[in-house]
TrEMBL record:
<feature type="domain" description="GH16">
    <location>
        <begin position="26"/>
        <end position="214"/>
    </location>
</feature>
<dbReference type="GO" id="GO:0042546">
    <property type="term" value="P:cell wall biogenesis"/>
</dbReference>
<feature type="signal peptide">
    <location>
        <begin position="1"/>
        <end position="25"/>
    </location>
</feature>
<keyword id="KW-1015">Disulfide bond</keyword>
<feature type="active site" description="Proton donor">
    <location>
        <position position="104"/>
    </location>
</feature>
<feature type="glycosylation site" description="N-linked (GlcNAc...) asparagine">
    <location>
        <position position="108"/>
    </location>
</feature>
<dbReference type="Pfam" id="PF06955">
    <property type="entry name" value="XET_C"/>
</dbReference>
<comment type="function">
    <text>Catalyzes xyloglucan endohydrolysis (XEH) and/or endotransglycosylation (XET). Cleaves and religates xyloglucan polymers, an essential constituent of the primary cell wall, and thereby participates in cell wall construction of growing tissues.</text>
</comment>
<keyword id="KW-0808">Transferase</keyword>
<dbReference type="GO" id="GO:0004553">
    <property type="term" value="F:hydrolase activity, hydrolyzing O-glycosyl compounds"/>
</dbReference>
<dbReference type="InterPro" id="IPR010713">
    <property type="entry name" value="XET_C"/>
</dbReference>
<dbReference type="GO" id="GO:0016762">
    <property type="term" value="F:xyloglucan:xyloglucosyl transferase activity"/>
</dbReference>
<keyword id="KW-0961">Cell wall biogenesis/degradation</keyword>
<keyword id="KW-0326">Glycosidase</keyword>
<dbReference type="InterPro" id="IPR013320">
    <property type="entry name" value="ConA-like_dom_sf"/>
</dbReference>
<dbReference type="GO" id="GO:0071555">
    <property type="term" value="P:cell wall organization"/>
</dbReference>
<dbReference type="InterPro" id="IPR016455">
    <property type="entry name" value="XTH"/>
</dbReference>
Length: 316
């Protein structure tokens, strides 16, 4: 689904559409296919449901791989007792030095809040977990979960609100995922050895099947045929004089001021764990944790900065 716009006017128009969230969504089968446990898939019109029971979970994968762009889907998580279950939604490349961007929704007992764990793997190395609760009950309605990925940043979005940014800090010698095409995946499985309250609460199979529902699949990204080499992919998916991808526009290279404020709000009110500040695990702070969006906010808005001062807002 590569988009090649040559005219700035057209580009502005389409960026406008994206911002308004009007990018058209596709049927599940246009973009994805079941990865495992076909018999745990339920198709109901535009809805797809994945089922976890004591025989199996289920998972699906995109038919193509992509390098840069935006991927979204709307998910409604397991209602009622979801303790022990994990619903994951992620992008990943393959191989021992793979890159991966994860949303993992950790279930809970009835009435207790889901946790959203995010992680970023670069060249096979993860250990960059963040955990947060959400400002709504993700089991009651569909909400959109997106990944925006370009040469400058990876942004995790919930209903278009940024909840995490992984910034390109190659200038500090930190590798950034920009060479490997990634597939898009989702699955539901039993993880009661760790998911809920650190593994204390086990899956209650008398409440199975556990069902996660999906709709509104959108992929607006540079598509990479499997047969194509890494070099060719990098060339195809980089903006150049002849073609300009919307995600390479200057406005996409960092969060807008409004988005920066949203991220500050999310982190202040909903973040419950951040590897950046876990000194037991990382006595030496990860280098990427040292960055803050305060300086950016300060640059743009001297007045409001004082209110944010003192609040550490790592970008990692
Ligand atoms: C489940 O609920 C408990 C109690 O409210 C909370 O401490 C925990 O963070 C919640 N989420 C998970 C995944 O354990
Ligand atoms: C799965 O759960 C059902 C209902 O609780 C039970 O009857 C069945 O024996 C279980 N199957 C397996 C393989 O554990
Ligand atoms: C983090 O930033 C502080 C202040 O800018 C600097 O003194 C320190 O060396 C930095 N640490 C790392 C690990 O980059």
């Amino acid at each position: 689904m590569a988009v090649l716009f040559k005219m700035p006017v057209l580009l502005g128009f389409f960026v406008g559409l994206m911002v308004l969230g009007l990018a058209s969504s596709a049927e599940f089968h246009e973009l994805f296919q079941p990865g495992w446990a076909n018999d745990h898939f339920i198709y109901e019109g535009e809805l797809l449901k994945l089922k976890l029971d004591n025989f199996s979970g289920a998972g699906f994968a995109s038919k193509s791989r992509y390098l840069f762009g935006k991927v979204s889907m709307q998910i409604k998580l397991v209602e009622g007792d979801s303790a022990g279950t994990v619903t994951a939604y992620y992008m990943s490349s393959e191989g021992p030095y793979h890159n991966e961007f994860d949303f993992e929704f950790l279930g809970n007992t009835t009435g207790e809040p889901y946790l959203l764990q995010t992680n970023v793997y670069v060249n096979g190395v993860g250990n960059r977990e963040q955990r947060m609760n959400l400002w709504f009950d993700p089991t009651k309605d569909f909400h959109s979960y997106s990944l925006l990925w370009n040469q400058r940043q990876v942004v995790f979005l919930v209903d278009e609100t940024p909840i995490r940014v992984h910034t390109n800090m190659e200038h500090k010698g930190i590798p950034f995922p920009k060479d490997q095409a990634m597939g898009v995946y989702s699955s539901i499985w039993n993880a009661d050895d760790w998911a809920t309250q650190g593994g204390l609460v086990k899956t209650d199979w008398s409440h199975a099947p556990f069902v996660a529902s999906y709709k509104g699949f959108e992929i607006d990204a540079c598509e990479c045929p499997v047969s194509v080499t890494t070099d060719e992919i990098a060339k195809k998916c980089s903006s150049s004089a002849e073609k300009r991808f919307w995600w390479d526009e200057p406005t996409m290279s960092e969060l807008s001021l409004h988005q920066s404020h949203q991220l500050v709000w999310v982190r202040a009110n909903h973040l419950v764990y951040d590897y950046c500040t876990d000194t037991a695990r990382f006595p030496v702070k990860p280098v990427e944790s040292n960055q803050s969006i305060e300086s950016r906010i300060r640059k743009e808005e001297m007045g409001g900065y004082m209110a944010l001062k003192g609040m550490h807002v790592g970008q990692c």
